[in-house]
Every structure is written in structure tokens, then in C-alpha cells.
Amino acid sequence: MTHGLRTRRRTSGRRPHPVRLYLAPLMLLAPCLAQAQQASPPEAAPPQAEPDMNAPLDAMPDIGVDWPDMGQPDSVTPLPADPVDTDAAATVEPSPEAMPALPEPVEEDVATFADAGEERRYTVVLTGIETIADAQFTQRFDELSALRLGQDKSANLAQINRRIKEDSDLLDRLLRAKGYYAARVRGSVAPPPAGSDRLAVSFDINPGTRYLLSSVDVLGLAETGEREEKLRAAFPPKVDDPVDADAILSGRDSLTTALSESGFPFAKVDEPEVRIDHEERKGDLDIIVTPGGFRRFGAIRTDDDQLFSAHHVQEIARFDPGDTYMASDVEDLRRAIVATGLVSSVTLTPKDAGDGEHVDLDVDMRPAPLRTIAGELGYGTGEGYRAEVSWQHRNFFPPEGAVTLRGVIGTQEQTASFTYRRNNFKRRDNVLTGLLSISNIKRDAYDARTINLSGAIERQSNILFQKKWVWRFGGELIASDEADAFSGGSRRTFLIAAVPVSLTYDGSDDLLNPSKGFRLGARVSPELSFQNKTFGYTRAQVDGSIYQPVNDRVVLAARARFGTIFGSTVDQIAPSRRFYAGGGASVRGYGYQAIGPRYGEDDDPVGGKSLAEFSLESRVRFGNFGVVPFIDAGNISTSFLPRFRDLRIGAGMGVRYYSSFGPIRVDVGTPLNPQPGDPKVAVYVSLGQAF
């Protein structure tokens, strides 16, 4: 459907039939006003003698049809002369419609080119509109101009003439869109100036007087009652504003949005209509609104509850029955349903409840594939080979109760796990998780055979809905048989109960690829451990990162992390619960968990009670690719507080590919002050930035 601004000419003493021209969505321009010509009454025909029916027929006259514009006066009455430009009216064509393809002087200037049929390139210059041609005006002309489209290709004079005529009409429409209904446009061609081999195509433009609004009537808002004043303010055009099509159409859109956000789901806003008075250089603006009645949210209805019921949809919604209808709430609910991953498409349609007060919401959903089988095979420096396979059903326990079975077989890890995850648990964005896993992990730092039973309720961010505040509250029961360098090769059994709690504030602008803002998070986990005796300790960790754009291509990013364990000694704490540093999400250039104190004959890392890490990188982007030079530093200490004098430093270069779902990261780092046994180069691959 084509939407736009309707204009018609207003004259004194009579109301002409309106000329309705619509604005094409591509151009978003005001239409040209077709001006009616007042034809003179025909002269009375002289009386004629009655023909003689018996007289012989005259010879058949020659029959022919002239081309409509051959020898005929222009059918469009020229606009009245601009009062401030009466002298120029004698030399400037009266209107763009009546202007010939090329003025006589132009033909003389390029006669040699025309006779020879020579094709030349040209340049285009607009003069006279420097004060009114804003970025939007210039962009529209550049995108729609026939001359601009062909200016890098050679053309003959006839082609240039046709393009000048097309662009003259275009400029006239562009100027009318900004309220200049009495503009004069003259196009010309001149030989190449000195030092150039291109013809000079120029438009000498006199925009004339800008027409203003003499009246603005928004009809129908009286039916909205107490909301009339607020809704009227949503339509900014007012008396003495320019007859600017963009401003008027933008006001129409703002009014439409305001109605849909104020409880009027069935409101209709007609196309604005402007009556133009060329004598007064004025316009009268009318816009008709049909509110359709105020409504509040009623019931949510679904025809098929195979995925989830109407009750669950209401839990996801950010509105309650009885709240004022808002179209933005409906769109938010649609996006939230899509974010569940259970639907391939969803349509939400407001339906009148029939009581004159409420509007019900019909939800039509098409299910997406609910089962996924995934596999992964890879090799990591210091980690060896690793193969993973998983099976997931995303709605095994409706609504949104997902089940995942996962198995890992690798050089250093063998794991089997069962995970239950319920999205939108009891309320929007709450996630309930449960995990049962059995694992055998053998690292340089420790060897652990572990059974883990854990659960948590949390509020999470996702790609569609990035939240400022994210929290998690959980519980863990762990039975682990472990060995490390402190145990001298013998194994120790640990029974651990933990209550981890975390809180994060995300003030960045993007979840996977932040370019400005900051993040700050804290995690505290009180734990009880039984190993020959029962003792307690608390793990605490603070993370912060900041992102500062330098320009459109470069972002500086910095990160810091501090952690500590208080309440026990290092050797008492289970090796799998200590702090470690090194790797792609820590200090790049070093092996996984390789930084920190080492112990025993094999000089194995043993972890520690405190942690300090720092990172600084410059993210330079070139289209879909980017490079990231970085430097990281970190250390693990066995004391309560980290020792900064023993920082291990790594540096390197990363490459980014910015896909539609986030950046793919490949980082190559090297240790600058390595310990014995550290690799010379380490490579890391993952989705998303390093922090």
C-alpha cells in the first residue's frame, strides 16, 4: 500500500476537486501539485444556414492527429510569480513542468558535441540551495538522480538532455517535499572547464518562498477523552511551521505509535491532506483519526498448547490482564516467545473481547524442531584430544523443560552428565537448572574422579534480551577422589557442600561484542569440606571490564580479576576448588592452569588461595574482519592476597571474524617471562571476545 501526503490547491470562492498524489515509500517525498487551468468560456458560434440535403458532398479532407504537445500552448498554468523574485521571473522558466528539455543557450554551448555525436563524461553541480539542502535532501537526490546514476559513464547530448529533464522534475518534487512550492529550476550544460575533460552540468535553483501552515486540524482525537491532550502533543506540526512532507509524515507515524501505546489497538490514522494556497503561500493541514475505542489487555488465547499453554505465555508477558494495551508490550512478548527456541514463527493478533473494555491476544505458534544432536572433535595444546557428543530435547518436560545428555572422551577428561533446564521458570527470564555428572579429569595440576549434584535458579541475559543485572543462587554437593603434588601421589576423598551466589552488572552495549560501557561482577561461595575432619572456607572473586571506543574502527578494552579463599590452607582445600590461571580466558600465551606455584618432582602447578589477572587489548575492525593485539598478566599465590611482583605476562595477536551471531575469535599468544616447561606459542579459538 502506498502512503503519503495528499495536496490540493485552494482558491478563493470555490472548492476545487482535490488532486491526490501519494508519496512513494522509497522516496518519502511530497507530491507535485497538479495545477488546474481556468479555461476561458467558448465564444458564441455565428448562426449558420441550414444545409442543403441534396447538394453533392465536398471532397474528403485530410485526416491527421497532431502529437499532443506539437504547436500547442502549455496546458499547465504557470505559478504566480514569487513576490521576492519578480525580476528573475522574466528569465527563469515559469515551472519545471513547462521547461524544455534544454534551454537554447545550452544547445549552442554543446553544438559541436551534438553534431559529432560525441559522448563525454560530465559533472553535476547544484547551486542556489546551499542553505536548504540538508543531508537528507542531498542523499535523496544522489540516490534518485538520473544524472548521478550515469555520471561515471560517457553520454551524448541527447542523453544528458533527457537526464536534465528527469532531474529537474526530481528537484521540483524534492523542493516541494520541503515546502518550496514556487521553486524555479533551470538546467544547463557547458563545455569542460579549464583543466577538465568533463562537461559541466549545472542546475541553477531558486527555491522561492517556503510555504507555511496556516491551520492544523487533527480531527477525531476528541473521542479519546482525557488522553486527547497527550495524543495531540504526539503530532508536532503546528501553525506557521513549513509545509514539510517529512515532518508531517513523521508526525503521522508518531501519532500512530502514541495511539497504539495508549490503549487504542484498533486506531486508524488517515493520510494527511494539505490544501495549498499559492496566492498566500500557505497550506491548510488536515488529518483524520479514528481511535477505535480505549482497551485494556484481556485474556491470552492459544489454539494449540502442544508447546506451552496460554497460562505460560502470560507468565512470559511483561503485562497483566487489566493493564493498558501497548503495542510495544505485544512486540516484546513476540520476541520472548521466539527466544525460547521452541517456535519457528509466531503471530500475535489483538481481538476485541466484545465487552467494549478489553482486547484479547490470539497467539498462533508453529513449532520448531525440538531435538538436537551435536558433536565436537578437537585438539588443544596441553589438553590433548577431546571428543564430545550431546543429545538435547528442548521441551521434554513442558513448558520449556529441556533435557541434555552429554558425554566427553578425551586425553585428559571423561565425563557423562544429565542436565535439566527450565526457562522462564515462574516468571520471565528466570532459569531453573539441575545437573548430575560423573567425571574423571586428569590435569597437570590434579587428578580428580568426581560426582557432582547441583542446582541453581538464576536470571540470565541472552542475545535478544541483554540485562543490566544478572544473578545466580545455587547449591552443590560434591564427592571427589583427588590427587595432586601436595598429596605425594596418594589420593584423598573430599565431600563438599557449597552455596555459590553471584551478582553481575552489565553496562556494556553488546553481549558478545561490547564496544562501550563496563561490566562488574562478584561471586561468593561459602563451602564446607569433609576430609578426615570438617572445616569451612569461602571463595570470593571480583571481575571488572571496561570498553572505550577510540573511533568507528578501534575499541580499547581492559579487564581485571581478583580472587581469594579465606578460612583454610591451600593443602587442605580440594585441588579442584583452588584458583588457577593461564589459558584462553585467562592469561593467553600460557597453558591451561599453568601459572602459579609448582611442586613435586614433575614441577606441576598446584593452584593457590589468591588470584590476580589483567588484560588490555585494542580491537581494530575492518568490515567483517578485525585484528586484536593484546597483552595479559596474572599470577596465583598461596597467600590470602596475591603477589603482584610474580606476575606472568603474555602477549600476542588475535584475528576476529564478525559473523551475524557474534565474533569468532582466534588468538595466538606467547609468554614473555615463561617458567620452565611453558610453551613458546599457544593458540585459542572460541565464540565471542575474550572478555
Could you please describe the fold and organization of this structure?
The protein has 691 residues and is mainly β. It has helices at residues 104-109, 111-116, 135-144, 146-150, 157-177, 228-233, 245-260, 310-316, 327-339; strands spanning 6-9, 122-127, 184-190, 199-206, 212-219, 268-269, 273-277, 282-290, 296-302, 343-352, 358-367, 371-380, 384-397, 401-410, 413-422, 430-442, 446-459, 469-484, 492-498, 501-506, 517-531, 533-549, 554-566, 598-599, 604-605, 610-622, 625-637, 648-659, 662-671, 682-687. Among the domains are: 299-363, Roll (Ubiquitin-like (UB roll)), CATH 3.10.20; 423-434 and 441-446 and 459-464 and 496-687, Porin (Beta Barrel), CATH 2.40.160.50. Helix content is 13%, strand content 40%. The strands form five sheets. It has a 17-stranded antiparallel beta sheet that branches. 28% of the residues are buried.
Question: Outline of this structure?
Answer:
This protein is mainly beta. Helix content is 13%, strand content 40%.
Which tags fit this structure?
30 strands; 40% strand; 5-stranded mixed beta sheet; 9 helices; Ubiquitin-like (UB roll); Porin; mainly beta; 691 residues
